Amino acid sequence: MQRDEEGDHAAALATLASAAESGLPMALYVYAQTRHAADPADEEAYGLLETVAEARGEFAVEAAGVLADRAKERRDLPAALRWFGQLAETKPDAAPLAVAHLGELCYWLGHHDQAVDFYTRTLDGTDDPVLVAEAAYRVGEILAGRGDAAGAVPLLRRAAATGDATYAPQAARLLGTLPA
User: Could you tell me which Gene3D superfamilies the record lists for this protein (predicted)?
Assistant: First the structure.
């Protein structure tokens, strides 16, 4: 690591590769992350992260987080379900955020029934204003789009009440178009 800080990236990678051969989760994780930082398209780095995450030992949560984010970026729902699911299962305090990410991905993909399910689970699992703002707004938006103003209004009010800079104004605007 010191070699990398001094600018000798190739030597640092060689040292980390040698350490990773031990199979120790920390060594594999650091090596994979260093490779990933140098080249986000490095498929072998992701393979190493999968090895660490699948072992469900030390650094598994961190590796699963990287893999979950990658799956979301790639719009890969099956992989996102796997890795965000592992995060939610092994780190319960991260579950609301993991489920919110799944809701957002399903929303992007147009899988609105699944988005509603994941966002509802987010709302049931947290009072975090940032997560509540997005989840309540998105479910309210979907319900309003389906003509369910009665279901949408309380959710949109909840989103607006968070004061979130992104979703509160959108919720207020959408509320203005719906019957109270």
Answer: Tetratricopeptide repeat domain
Domain that holds residue 114: 91-180
Whether residue 115 sits in one domain with residue 156: yes
pTM, two decimals, is: 0.86
**Residues 53 and 40: beta-carbon distance below 8 Å:** no
pLDDT in tens, 61-101: 999 999 999 999 999 999 999 999 999 999 999 999 999 99
Same domain, 29 and 14: yes
What's the rounded Cα separation, in Å, for the pair 104 and 153?
A: 20
Choose the final residue of a domain: 32, 52, 85.
85
Own/partner pairs for 112-121, CB < 8 Å, 24+ apart?
Answer: 112/142, 115/139, 115/142, 116/142, 116/143, 121/96
